[in-house]
Amino acid sequence: MSNAFRELLKKVGSGVHTGEDLSREEAAAATRMMLLQEATPAQIGAFMIAHRIKRPTSQELAGMLDAYEQIGPKLQLEGFGNGQSGIENEEDAATTSLLSQPVTVFGTPYDGRSRTAPVTPLTALILATAGVRVIMHGGDCMPTKYGVPLIEIWQGLGVDFSRVTLSQIEQLFKTTGLGLIYLPQHFPEAQALVPYRDQIGKRPPFATMELIWSPYGGDVHIVAGYVHPPTELRFRETLEMRGVRKFTLVKGLEGSCDLPRDRTAIIAISQPDVSEGFERLLLHPRDYGFAHQEAPLDSTPELIQQMQHVLNGKPTELMSVAIWNGGFYLWRCGVCPDLATGFAKAESFLTEGYALQKLQDIRHGIASLQLAHQP
């Protein structure tokens, strides 16, 4: 048993009247001890459920992120060129200028989606096609929702990030502008904590923190979804403590980064020039012709088939969802001057085959990396 961890557990688990919040340093220490299995299973489970009941503060989330940064993987971009764009025309100059922009990191719930069709992988392909560098992260189907995780969607599209090493992911990221950190393969310390989610039957505070975690060792644009409005404030405070200057926080579908179409999209974007440090956008889908009921998630095979139709330029309902999201993020990431231009560009990337070409580039990149490392 770790006596040091026991003292931290006592602080968060002493109840409403005598319990205390951890400092940033204490939260980082507790997280390190859990990741490194210095705390016992009983201590880890007790901490997770106690912290879940107490609710994490912004400084505690910052400390947890400090530990993840210290122990977890961090992709780098040394030697990164401008060959990641799938468009070889006058837009190359714009693509080159994007190399100086932060890397966009999508934070989506690790336990996936179960009701609405996710389009985050399509959004990532659209951005990578335009020269925006994108990182995602997550694991397998996991508690408590057991929804469709990102890794299964990518595998259905012919891209298996689970079969490549961390160094290969980094190389793929450098050459294609897109990568995914897969916990079981690339961050086993965090993966070892996943079973506790099932055992305690609730999402632990890690499930909140990981939405704004960045597995990149440089300047980032954090994109995170959330469900409950107080989470947005915690995210903003935590990111400020950690010096993250660019963020996009979305009250998205099932807590994801995907914009809703059946209600107003509530979005907080960083705005250093205003006193509050952020601006709240209220995007009404009807104003842009995208208002509609949300596309349902019937099954993973059907979702993959619909995505393949979109990438082949077929006018399906999911195409509209992909354009709505892709166009917004093209604007937010600085590719397009306004939303209308973003929607038009997202549509052209899909209907003219550029996003499909990016997907094929990623497939070929993984195949080449695996072939090069065969004995």
TrEMBL record:
Q: By its UniProt entry, which Gene3D superfamilies does this protein fall under?
A: Nucleoside phosphorylase/phosphoribosyltransferase catalytic domain, Transferase, Pyrimidine Nucleoside Phosphorylase, Chain C
Q: Which GO MF term does the entry hold, naming one?
A: anthranilate phosphoribosyltransferase activity
Question: What is the uppermost EC class here?
Answer: transferase
- Name the InterPro entries for this protein: Anthranilate_Pribosyl_Tfrase, Glycosyl_Trfase_fam3, Glycosyl_Trfase_fam3_N_dom, Glycosyl_Trfase_fam3_N_dom_sf, Nuc_phospho_transferase
EC number assigned by the record: 2.4.2.18
Protein keywords: Amino-acid biosynthesis, Aromatic amino acid biosynthesis, Glycosyltransferase, Transferase
Would the keyword Ribosomal protein turn up in this protein's UniProt record? no
Residue ranges of the Glycosyl transferase family domain? Answer: 115-356
Residue span(s) of domain Glycosyl transferase family 3 N-terminal? 6-68
Keyword Lipid metabolism belongs to the record? no
Example GO BP: L-tryptophan biosynthetic process
Return the GO cellular component terms, semicolon-separated. Answer: cytosol
Which PANTHER family does this chain map to? ANTHRANILATE PHOSPHORIBOSYLTRANSFERASE (PTHR43285), SLL1634 PROTEIN (PTHR43285:SF3)
Its recorded name reads Anthranilate phosphoribosyltransferase
What is the taxonomic lineage of the source species? Bacteria, Bacillati, Cyanobacteriota, Cyanophyceae, Coleofasciculales
